[in-house]
């Protein structure tokens, strides 16, 4: 079966001549999770934006479900590091937005997101505005919006980077449990070695800019919340650290 996500020799040179990535190739099979890690400025966000259909690569091809990405892919949800919430919309309006954009009536969309907000611990906050929430809660609203469309693919750009350690760990656990239940295909950009090892069954290490694939590390032990506390987890973190350091 064809991979769900595939980068074929992707390259990106911005109009000002900045080369962000070069010859990046990797693939993610159906139901797998892949973490992209690399030093700051190596082109991780660029790569994710290409798969989200927000940027066209200048070289190579980005494929989702075997088709070249030329617009935001239908089955994919995008989660960004700064939550992407509209400040003038309430929690429930923000969460319902993804469904409304896909043509669901506002009333139905709000009804559909209520149980998801409940599951994410946001019951009682439906009519709050983002600025009245903590960072962790705002990111949960962003997750609710993404999950409401029942995505088969999740594209995430450092979704936990602006959270405190405890909220980050809780949401990482939530995402892992969700992935084990739903088995969506995930592409996660992160600069955290621990996060990559906890959530990525496959870890793609990029070099300094322009980002090139230095190594693809298989991480078959990922997939349980307890993995964090195991010796193998720390061993894998060391392996990834060595590769990132070598860039
Ligand atoms: N629109 C743009 N025009 C020119 N250069 C850009 C543009 N967007 C990004 N860049 C440059 O491309 C390179 C890669 O940026 P990108 O944001 O993809 O990296 P990153 O790995 O996500 O960085 P970080 O880890 O710091 O978030 C950087 O040098 C950045 O300055």
Layout of helices and strands, plus pairs?
Blueprint: E1 5-13, E2 19-28, E3 33-37, H1 44-51, E4 59-64, E5 67-68, E6 76-79, H2 91-101, H3 106-119, H4 135-148, E7 153-157, H5 165-182, E8 185-190, H6 193-199, E9 202-206, E10 213-218, H7 231-246
Parallel strand pairs: 3-8, 3-9, 6-7, 7-8
Antiparallel strand pairs: 1-2, 1-4, 4-5, 9-10
The structure holds adenosine-5'-triphosphate (ATP).
Enzyme class: hydrolase
Domain ABC transporter: 5-233
Protein name: Taurine-transporting ATPase
TL;DR of this structure?
By secondary structure, the protein is of the alpha/beta class.
| Total helical elements | 7
Percent range of helical residues: 25-40%
CATH class of the domain at 72-185 and 213-226: Alpha Beta
Overall pLDDT confidence: 93
Distance between the termini: 33 Å
| Total number of strands | 10
CATH architecture type of the domain at 72-185 and 213-226: 3-Layer(aba) Sandwich
Q: H/E order of the elements?
A: EEEHEEEHHHEHEHEEH
Structural class: alpha/beta
Query: How many strands, what sense, and barrel or not for the largest sheet?
Result: 6 strands, mixed
Per CATH, the superfamily of the domain at 72-185 and 213-226 is P-loop containing nucleotide triphosphate hydrolases
Bound molecules: adenosine-5'-triphosphate
Strand portion, in percent? Answer: 15-25%
| Order of strands across the main sheet | 6-7-8-3-9-10
Uncertain spans: none
**What overall form do the CA principal axes indicate?**
globular
Radius of gyration of CA atoms, rounded to a whole number: 18 Å
């Amino acid at each position: 079966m064809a991979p769900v996500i595939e980068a074929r020799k992707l390259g990106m040179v911005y109009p000002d001549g900045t080369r962000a990535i070069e010859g990046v190739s990797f693939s993610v099979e159906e139901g797998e999770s892949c973490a992209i890690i690399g030093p700051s400025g190596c082109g991780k966000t660029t790569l994710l934006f290409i798969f989200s259909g927000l940027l066209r690569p200048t070289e190579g091809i980005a494929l989702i479900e075997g088709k070249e990405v030329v617009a935001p892919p239908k089955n994919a949800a995008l989660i960004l590091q700064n939550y992407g919430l509209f400040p003038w919309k309430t929690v429930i309006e923000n969460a319902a937005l993804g469904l409304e954009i896909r043509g669901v009536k506002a009333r139905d969309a709000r009804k559909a997101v209520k149980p998801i907000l409940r599951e994410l611990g946001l019951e009682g906050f439906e009519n709050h505005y983002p600025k009245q929430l903590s960072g962790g809660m705002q990111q949960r609203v962003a997750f609710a919006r993404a999950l409401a469309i029942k995505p088969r693919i999740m594209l995430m750009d450092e979704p936990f980077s602006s959270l405190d350690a405890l909220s980050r760990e809780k949401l990482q656990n939530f995402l892992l449990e969700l992935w084990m239940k739903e088995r969506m295909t995930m592409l996660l950009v992160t600069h955290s070695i621990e996060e990559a090892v906890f959530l990525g069954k496959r870890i793609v290490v990029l070099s300094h800019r322009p980002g090139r694939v230095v190594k693809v590390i298989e991480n078959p032990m990922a997939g349980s919340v307890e993995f964090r506390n195991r010796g193998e987890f720390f061993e894998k973190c060391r392996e990834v650290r060595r590769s990132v350091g070598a860039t």
